[in-house]
């Protein structure tokens, strides 16, 4: 898995990702503690709304940004967005009102919404070989998981000496470091598609997504993943500090156990994906999330919470990591940025539902009760994904083109042994999935 780091460009991009993620992890913990400090009994609801605003920014900004970003110099786009995120994070320590959190979170996450799809769509161009790209996905997942471990550990250490307000400064440093590594990377030139307008690019990404069976199943899996992760992010601080009457350090430990489970899964996933189909792996991860959510209703102490968070971390990583492989095999390089933006928007639309729902349920019905409705949502999503995604998900499919003349270049290129078959993906010539 680590062999992909021999690629200098990817190594610089990976380091940029890791440093930014550590900063992002600090801001997640600091924001949870800040919401608890300002809102007290309403902390879960406030944090749920703040994270819902984050999702609104992602859903609204990502598709629009991707339409422009693919035509602009990648390096300048990424560096500019890092600078915007750093400047916004610098303002968060001075927040004294709930509405100020909401405004700054929207600005910060709008920049992230533009950054992430651009960054993700660039990696297949840096690592065009399937095996290298698979390893890069696992390494990227590992980076996210290290954020969940290193950031809480770093936060626990820093909170011994400073207030949580100063954790926001770690985020600023992370975004600046990310910008510096992006500057040092030699980014490949992507094929610039003809500009057909923002609406067309949004429509194209959504059309590919909603006409590809494996991606429709992915949308359902996104909802299951969001149900579990939203509960962890929103309710950890409430469970630890209100239900179990423990300290901020215990909160960071709980976040760390979730990340540890996810990280260990990321280490072994490349070997698992080589032996099993993506469908089996992702459904297995989702099943772990479902079981863990039902178990959550019965946790009675902090130690049980740590075990449960570790289990949910495993399920989260197993269900989430192969996502990039599905996106890559479902679009060519010209449409990949639009499709990554669509996945970014659709997956965060699921969090837009689950974040405020968890906050509302926790505030009005109790943190333990919240596990049951989120588990039910995850079960329904699991069933939908199983039905939408056929066990026989062949990439090469035989199909016909009644709308093309017999001498069309596309037909001449792919007609073999009297059959027209090739690696199938929804595009200009293939508007619908063959039955």
TrEMBL record:
SUPFAM superfamilies per the UniProt record, alphabetical:
MFS general substrate transporter
Respond yes or no to whether keyword Coiled coil is given for this record: no
A single Gene Ontology CC term: plasma membrane
Gene3D superfamilies assigned to the protein according to its UniProt record, in alphabetical order: MFS general substrate transporter like domains
Tell me which residues make up the Major facilitator superfamily (MFS) profile domain: 9-393
Q: Which CDD domains match?
A: MFS_MefA_like
MF terms from GO for this chain are: transmembrane transporter activity
Pfam families membership? MFS_1
Q: What topology does it adopt in the membrane?
A: Multi-pass membrane protein
Localization (cell) = Cell membrane
Which residue ranges run through the membrane? Answer: 12-34, 46-65, 101-121, 168-187, 217-238, 250-269, 281-300, 306-327, 339-362, 368-389
Q: Does the keyword Iron-sulfur apply?
A: no
The leader peptide range reads: none
Keyword vocabulary terms for this entry: Cell membrane, Membrane, Transmembrane, Transmembrane helix, Transport
Q: What is this protein called?
A: Major facilitator superfamily (MFS) profile domain-containing protein
Which organism does this sequence originate in? Acinetobacter indicus CIP 110367
């Amino acid at each position: 898995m680590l062999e992909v780091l021999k690629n200098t460009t990817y190594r610089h991009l990976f380091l940029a990702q890791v440093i930014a993620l550590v900063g992002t992890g600090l801001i997640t913990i600091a924001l949870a503690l800040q919401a608890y400090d300002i809102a007290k009994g309403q902390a879960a609801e406030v944090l749920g709304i703040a994270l819902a605003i984050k999702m609104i920014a992602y859903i609204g900004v990502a598709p629009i940004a991707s339409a422009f970003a693919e035509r602009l110099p990648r390096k300048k786009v990424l560096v500019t967005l890092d600078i915007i995120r750093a400047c916004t994070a610098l303002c968060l320590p001075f927040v004294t009102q709930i509405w100020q959190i909401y405004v700054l979170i929207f600005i910060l996450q709008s920049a992230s919404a533009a950054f992430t799809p651009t960054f993700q769509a660039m990696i297949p161009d840096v690592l065009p070989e399937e095996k290298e790209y698979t390893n890069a996905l696992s390494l990227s997942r590992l980076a996210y998981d290290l954020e969940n471990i290193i950031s809480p550990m770093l936060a626990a250490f820093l909170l011994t000496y400073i207030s949580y307000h100063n954790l926001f400064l770690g985020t600023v440093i992370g975004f600046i470091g990310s910008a510096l590594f992006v500057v040092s990377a030699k980014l490949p030139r992507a094929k610039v598609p003809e500009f057909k307008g923002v609406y067309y690019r949004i429509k194209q990404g959504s059309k590919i997504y909603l006409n590809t069976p494996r991606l429709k199943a992915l949308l359902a899996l996104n909802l299951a993943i969001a149900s579990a992760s939203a509960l962890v992010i929103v309710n950890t601080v409430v469970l630890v500090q209100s239900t179990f009457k423990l300290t901020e350090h215990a909160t960071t430990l709980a976040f760390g156990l979730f990340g540890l489970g996810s990280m260990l899964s990321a280490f072994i996933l490349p070997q698992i994906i080589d032996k099993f189909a993506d469908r089996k792996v992702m459904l297995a991860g989702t099943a772990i999330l479902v079981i863990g959510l039902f178990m959550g209703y019965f946790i009675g102490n902090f130690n049980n919470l740590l075990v449960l968070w570790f289990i949910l971390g495993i399920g989260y990583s197993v269900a989430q990591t192969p996502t990039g492989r599905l996106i890559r095999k479902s679009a060519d390089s010209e449409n990949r940025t639009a499709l990554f933006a669509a996945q970014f928007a659709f997956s965060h639309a699921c969090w837009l539902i689950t974040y405020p729902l968890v906050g509302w349920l926790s505030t009005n019905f109790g943190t333990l009760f919240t596990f049951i409705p989120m588990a039910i949502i995850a079960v329904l999503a699991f069933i939908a994904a199983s039905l939408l995604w056929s066990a026989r998900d062949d990439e090469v499919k035989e199909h016909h083109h009644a709308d093309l003349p017999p001498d069309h270049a596309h037909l001449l290129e792919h007609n073999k042994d009297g059959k027209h078959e090739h690696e199938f993906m929804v595009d200009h010539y293939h508007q619908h999935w063959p039955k």
